[in-house]
């Protein structure tokens, strides 16, 4: 950043935005599935639909794809 004094404000704004986004998605998921919501949202998806399978596989591949990005600063 050009103005390093703004870093804490930007971080606070980003964390606030992420918190609001996750909370709204959680509320929408609870409103869709009700009290029968399971611990992982992918367990609530119907297994016979191809769109659900795509979502499940994407959720499985996501951490594997990010492993190299997380290890780059360490290496």
UniProtKB/TrEMBL annotation:
Keywords: Amino-acid transport, Membrane, Transmembrane, Transmembrane helix, Transport. Its main location: membrane. Pfam families: Aa_trans (PF01490). Residues 1-75 form the Amino acid transporter transmembrane domain. One of its GO terms (cellular component) is membrane. One of its GO terms (biological process) is amino acid transport. It is found in: Membrane. Signal peptide: none annotated. This is Amino acid transporter transmembrane domain-containing protein. It comes from Anisodus acutangulus.
């Amino acid at each position: 950043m050009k103005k390093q004094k703004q870093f804490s404000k930007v971080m606070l704004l980003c964390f606030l935005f992420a918190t609001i986004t996750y909370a709204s998605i959680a509320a929408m998921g609870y409103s869709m599935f009700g009290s029968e919501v399971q611990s992982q949202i992918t367990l609530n998806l119907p297994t016979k639909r191809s769109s659900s399978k795509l979502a499940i596989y994407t959720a499985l591949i996501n951490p594997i794809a990010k492993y190299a990005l997380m290890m780059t600063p360490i290496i």
